[in-house]
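We examine the record.

___
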Amino acid sequence: MSINLYQIHIQTTEKDKVEKMLVHYLEQQTNNRSVIIQLVEKTSINFFTHEIPTMFAVSIQHEGWVTVLHDSFDHLNELTEMLSNFFNTMVIHALGQSTVDNYYLSVYQHGILLRVISYEDDNVEVEQKGRPFSFEKLPIGKNIGTDSVPSYVFDYNEMQSFCLHFQVDLLSDVTELNEQWMIIQYERTNPSPTNRRLTLMSKLFDKFKLK
């Protein structure tokens, strides 16, 4: 089974403010192109399809955290730093694809980058930045070699173990979105009557946009 991670976790309960920031962020990426918001109706995310995200799904999946899914394959450092700075809190960004063994994990606190751990299958070692947290075991990653000739990897299991220290379960099933998720995405070129109604919702939403 393929494991795909495209998650941002913000340690806050202010879900509405997170949604407003994401609307603002998408608009800024394409010179104020219209953005719509809607409650999901049983759908899924087409992950890893864009460098600049075109879609977010927002929900509360873990107590004290807002979870954001996205369709971008980028590290989204600007966005995660902005969210961490605005809410003055911790933000965790997890990206990963088990089919190609590429993984990336970043942690921001109060807008400051604390930790980055990344691994690609063609690398000879796990790359990292920042000071390890107290719960981390060194060397970083899982030894798939021998004691005499170690070889360390950092995969979705290692990412999961890392994030569970913050009560964030990366491997909970979010592939099929349900009514708990709010979708934020670019407006289609020719919106359906339903989407026209949602566009009106977005216009009403505009007056609450962040400055």
